[in-house]
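Changelog-adjacent note: as of this version, every example in the card shows the full chain rather than a window. The one below runs 210 residues end to end.
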Amino acid sequence: MNIIEEFDFIPEELASDEARKVLALSPEFFVRRGNSFSTLGAAAYLDGLYEYFERAEKKNRVIDENFDALLRLTRNKLSKIMGREVIDLPMAARVGFHIFDSRSLGKQADWHIDETYKNVSWCEPFGMPFSFTVALALPHGDGGLNYKESFDEDAEIKYQPYRVGKLYVSSGLFPHQIANHTPATDDQPRVTLQGHGAVLSFSGKVAVYF
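Full-length structure tokens:
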């Protein structure tokens, strides 16, 4: 199995429509990390504990009102991939969005691993954490993820290109970095649906969140 799996998901036209809907909601964005990008939705790896729950309660309504169909498609696709029912994690943020534009010019994302499961409250014991991304818009169709298959400093840097409308799933538990080989601009932004999840040990369901 590849460290990052690519799956067919939605047509490019639908992805573009969803990206436009995200951008139209800019007054609802949270500005992140020195004004280098934004999110639509609370994010467990960016917000403090109490701030996260407060923001999630407010922005979940916005996301439900505008992206219910997209999130249902996402849960259904993940359910087929994993062979389990997929639900939203209770008391957590809905799956949300990253938005990169001209503010990111000249800036580079941090290398990290996804340990967001440590920052949310779980309704039951869990295992098999994972992360997923759907590319909705990429600057001139270009963008992806840099990653390493080991934690050695000298490990080879590899590149996973993203394609608009595709779903990418991985454990997230390896060093990786958002890659914008073609810089995002206001006219050519990078918009992605982002989420995390894990398997609930008692019910066997998969719970997803941002």
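Structural remarks: The mean pLDDT is 96.
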